[in-house]
């Protein structure tokens, strides 16, 4: 018995220890390309109460072409848009709310804005050695070209992550992407996006669904050429293979959904990331353990008066949208 115990302890002692994060908990920290082995320069967010005693969800955020850079002197441009912009505002100005972000966030910067799925997965492997990552709760999201990066990443590695949220994404999934029905995917797009047309996202969700009809048929106007007033969410049923419609910002009923904003142009991300319902849904998703079927973890469709992070307030740039995703006057 003593011999077995000694052997077990020796094995534990042989396990590699996690390296420390580059920055302080509760902070957004730039990590230069020449100071790490992930293959990217990136911004790192560490929860305020971070400890290696537990595993933490990991959110991967992918930027658009407007935030591309060299990963060193150009990293600060990442703070202009999307999740890094909201996190910067929150952590720099409202420090008492830092602990309401109970997950790791890495935002890699690419020189062209279109990193390959393999490069991203290499970064995930790096993150596992640097941070206490819950490998069953890895999420991918991005905007514009970064939304396209999200589509490309899940097209190859969707079976290794817990959920994805491509926003006005410019890329594609395979013509027949039915395998992705098993992955929780919530996509977002504005009807009047003049940079990446809505049809790009419609095509991708239809390639995943392969349903009885195109998802746009469930949109109130039934057409990608005629806008309907307000925000609308289209949700796919994997049993009936049919799309249904709900008014407003509504979480997926099963795994696949698309929320279409009436307006906003190319910026579908500010109001999405500012909406606590989005984060509630995302962090509720988890990959199954080996040998267990994926369980759909879809939170109760709650109002904004019951956010996932009580007391949290996102700082949204003036002139865009409030925390409920409503356009500011």
Can you tell me about this structure?
24% of the residues lie in helices and 19% in strands. The chain has 329 residues and is of the alpha/beta class. It has a single domain, classed as Rossmann fold. It has a ten-stranded mixed sheet. The chain is globular and about 50 Å long. The N terminus and C terminus are likely disordered.
Distance between the termini: 72 Å
How large is the count of helical segments? 7
Task: Report the order of strands and helices.
Answer: HEEEHEHEHEEHEEEHH
Task: Please provide the count of β strands.
Answer: 10
Uncertain segments are: 1-15, 300-329
Query: What kind of sheet is the major sheet?
Result: 10 strands, mixed
Helix content: 10-25%
CATH topology: Rossmann fold
Strand neighbour order, sheet with most strands: 1-2-4-3-5-6-7-10-8-9
List the helices and strands and how they pair.
Layout: H1 2-14, E1 28-31, E2 41-45, E3 56-62, H2 82-93, E4 104-109, H3 117-130, E5 133-143, H4 145-157, E6 163-167, E7 185-190, H5 198-209, E8 232-237, E9 242-247, E10 256-261, H6 269-273, H7 276-284
Parallel strand pairs: 3-4, 3-5, 5-6, 6-7, 7-10
Antiparallel strand pairs: 1-2, 2-4, 8-9, 8-10
Helix pairs in contact: 3-4
